[in-house]
Design brief:
Layout lengths: L2 E5 L3 H13 L4 E5 L15 H4 L17 E3 L4 E5 L4 E4 L2 E4 L2 E4 L3 E3 L10 E2 L4 H10 L5 E5 L3 H12 L3 E5 L12 H14 L2 E3 L4 E5 L2 E4 L9 E4 L3 E3 L10 E2 L3 E4 L4 E3 L2 E3 L4 E3 L13 H16 L11 E6 L2 E7 L6 E6 L2 E6 L2 E8 L5 H11 L5
Helix pairs in contact: 1-6
Amino acid sequence: MRRLVIVGAGLAGHRAALEARRWDPNLEIIVVGAEAHPPYQRPPLSKGLLLGSVRPERLRLRSQPDAYEHRPNVRAVGLDLAERAVETSGGPLSFDGLIVATGADPVLPPLFAHPATRTLRTVDDALALRARITPGHRVVAIGAGFIGLELASSLLALGAAVTVVEAEERVLPRAVGPGAAAIVASWHEHHGVTLRTTASVAAMAPGGPVLADGTELPADTVLVGIGVRPAVGWVANALPSDPRLGLLADEYGTVVDGVAAAGDAATWRHPAWSAPVRSEHFETAATQGVLAARNLLCAPREAWRDVPFGWSDQHGHLIQVLGVPGADAEEERRNEHTWAYYRNGRLEGFVLLDAAEDLVDRRDELARSLGLSE
């Protein structure tokens, strides 16, 4: 292989480039990204960067000098597999190997078109949002998933008045069970966040969202955090994909011969589950980026076998998610900090609340249950 092209300059793309360089010192590695910034990490966007405790330059991902060529402000718009070329805003870019790591974009239905509406996905989004917030600023966050609740926590700390609207009957409706969700909701209510569950937005009035029951919520800023969609529309006609799951990769990250995908742009097969696993977490993006590059460049290939893991900070509390818990699993409370999740009698996930010291033991227990222990 002479040239590896990586589309997407986030964590997965960055780690893929570094791994490729480790295996081949002579390989030409080009990483293209739509943003103007060098590769950076995203978890602090809704926390430290928004709060002002982390400077933007501290988000940069570390790299050796000249490890790869980064081309900013370049957007991929198509793929020609026959010619082995990515069509970009800067012209066609030929490749011998390709890794798609374009991440995901926030879902923003036309309903929420309004001058006050914002989403959070980039460093520029976070800086622009922070500039809007002054004490008493009225924020309505649509969606009580992880991003909506993290934003509620950070904006409240900046002095905003925050209301969170969730169509389901509880917070984190898809990520955790009702027991863990109730504890998280209590944190937010204790700190002064107004939670409106079983409430849907019917319209956007000049002054803010209007709920289905006719209630208008005055808002200076409306934050939409109802989920993300894999950013693979530019390649959907050329590669196996799904609008919700992204590119469909095997357990090695391969989509088709010579093309791999990693991070939020993809769903990988996993030996512990019969269905493909999609994991929108920092550790998953890092690991899949490494494996995608390694499996393209050398043999024997290595399958993705990690126990999926993610975390969230809210109001000074720590939420850690292991495996695949979710609302469709049977929830069992182990103690005041730990919830276990079962499907058909098999342990498949944990949610830990302020229990960082238990993480290693619970990860090991879950790995044994899933048949991932060596």
